[in-house]
Amino acid sequence: MSHTLPLSAPSPLAPRLSDLALLLVAVVWGTSYGVAKGALVLYPVLGFLAVRFLLTFAVLLPALLRAPAPERRDALVAGLPLGVLMLGIFLCETFGLALTQASNAAFLISLCVVFTPFAEWWLLRQRPERAMFAFAAVSLLGAALLSGGYTGRWGWGDALMLAAAVLRAITVCQTTRLTRRRNAPVLALTAVQSGVIGVGCLLLALALPGKLPPLPSLTQASAFWWACVYLVAGCTVFAFVAQNWALRHSSPTRVGLLTSSEPAFGALFAVFWLGEQLSATGWVGGALIVGAALWTMARRGDAQH
């Protein structure tokens, strides 16, 4: 099966399939926090991110090398700046989480769902439908209830999480803009993005004070490598490819709304898999987030054709 996405008119089923793919991305990303948390006990954050994305790059490198020269060039032209944006997102989220409360971080990153319609309006000159703003408001209310809202004083961690939310909104729109008139295969595009993130994290880990420890042993720290396998296969390869593909069939605002259901699925994973507790308010918030996503999916006419 070819992984090159033609620029011709997509199948009528493409918008519905892209909605389903994005909801699955949200589910997978929601589980990533619990999985990554266990791996980070065994290795530093930046080193772990470098391992995760360099492994992804190695897995997808054959797709980049096999692509015809024009398509490979398109993947590089679009993937390099998008990779830099995504590196900024991961760095802001990583250090932001370390410097603020978890509830603050969860609420502030969810502001992406509000920023995306305005970023689409500004960067792509496309005003989203009014219903999308309503869905975004419902999703944001759900995120506030799920996380407990914003608490405490404003600090550097809060600023970094807010920057990550802004960068997420910009990245979704820039992906649409940079790939709209280019025939970049999604696997090749994802390979370039992953390479930029992996190399960036590795260089930063080596440049910061403190020596990067040796990688965990395959035999004595198998949990670390199983976590890497899951995050590479599900949360990076599948999720990045699905999002890059879905953006060719959906508006950035729609993509942002569907993937914004990630915190709700993350909370469900924490409850049923990690044994954590969720308050009644949290359950209501999660239901609002998922409801907004399903409500968005039900509006078939909103998909971009």
Automatic annotation (TrEMBL):
InterPro entries: Diverse_Substrate_Transporter (IPR051258), EamA_dom (IPR000620), EmrE-like (IPR037185). It is a multi-pass membrane protein. This is Drug/metabolite transporter (DMT)-like permease. The chain crosses the membrane at residues 42-65, 77-99, 105-124, 131-150, 156-174, 186-208, 223-243, 255-274, 280-298. Residues 18-147, 156-296 form the EamA domain. It comes from the Bacteria. GO terms for cellular component: plasma membrane. It is found in: Cell membrane. The lineage of its organism: Bacteria, Pseudomonadati, Pseudomonadota, Betaproteobacteria, Burkholderiales. Coiled coil: none annotated. SUPFAM superfamilies: Multidrug resistance efflux transporter EmrE (SSF103481). Keywords: Cell membrane, Membrane, Transmembrane, Transmembrane helix. The keyword Cell membrane applies.
